[in-house]
Specification:
By secondary structure, the chain is α/β, with parallel strands linked by helices. The protein is 42% helix and 20% strand. The protein is built from 8 helices and 11 strands. Helix 2 (33-42) packs parallel to helix 3 (59-68) and helix 6 crosses helix 8 (189-202).
Length: 224
């Protein structure tokens, strides 16, 4: 999943992005509310983490503009403002969650998982397609009970596929979800990772789950 981190304290921003990346997320960083609105207009994000007190445009104002523009990206406020009135204001503006600094990274990751599950209409952190199961919380993948070892990027690509099982996803859509703005790669990087996943997910199984739709993209589905 792709997450936008909006935090003007650069060291903290860098640490959050690093921890999210280590957890298998793709993360972009920006440092004020106006910059955040530009990022949100230019890419599809699964979630955004907002500080409140920032230069140029504060977090509350930025989220208000998001919601007024019809942007439903799940938002978590991560801020030192701990008054009940601030929490109420943030949630009433359209935020999905509110976490006070200092915070536990484990709790932050759990709240992100819960927030994105609600957005996707999922009851648990486990997603399935046939006998394939991907568990975001455990960061594990199994097929027919057999554990599949994936790199962080392979996990991210499969996560995007399984969250959108049955939908044909273009190369551009996969790139935009799994790679951030700083990525400078080749044009066939998605093809390479789909090849990796096919070898790990489908090899040895009669029923194939990853399918190419020629000229369009890829789809994860169980063909009967």
């Amino acid at each position: 999943m792709r997450i936008l981190v909006v935090e003007d304290e650069r060291d903290l921003n860098r640490i959050i992005v690093k921890r999210l990346t280590a957890a298998g997320y793709t993360a972009d960083a920006c440092f004020d509310g106006l910059e955040a609105l530009d990022y949100l207009a230019g890419a599809d994000y699964d979630a955004a983490i907002f500080d409140v007190m920032m230069p140029k445009l504060d977090g509350f104002s930025a989220v208000r503009r998001m919601r007024e523009a019809g942007d439903a990206t799940p938002v978590l406020f991560l801020t030192a403002r701990d008054a009940v009135s601030d929490r109420v204001a943030g949630l009433d503006l359209g935020a999905n969650d509110y976490l006070v600094k200092p915070f536990s990274f484990d709790e932050l990751l759990a709240r992100i998982r819960a927030m994105t599950r609600r957005s996707a209409g999922a009851a648990t952190s486990a997603f399935t397609c046939g006998d394939l199961t991907l568990d975001e919380a455990a960061h594990s993948v199994t097929r027919a009970g057999r554990k599949i070892e994936l790199s962080a990027k392979e996990f991210a690509v499969l996560n995007y596929l399984i969250r959108n099982k049955g939908a044909v996803l273009s190369r551009e859509a996969i790139e935009n979800n799994v790679w951030n703005y700083d990525w400078e790669g080749g044009t066939n990087v998605v093809d390479v990772y789909m090849s990796y996943l096919r070898r790990k997910v489908d090899a040895g199984f009669e029923t194939k789950l990853i399918h190419t739709v020629r000229g369009v993209g890829w789809v994860l589905r169980e063909d009967k």
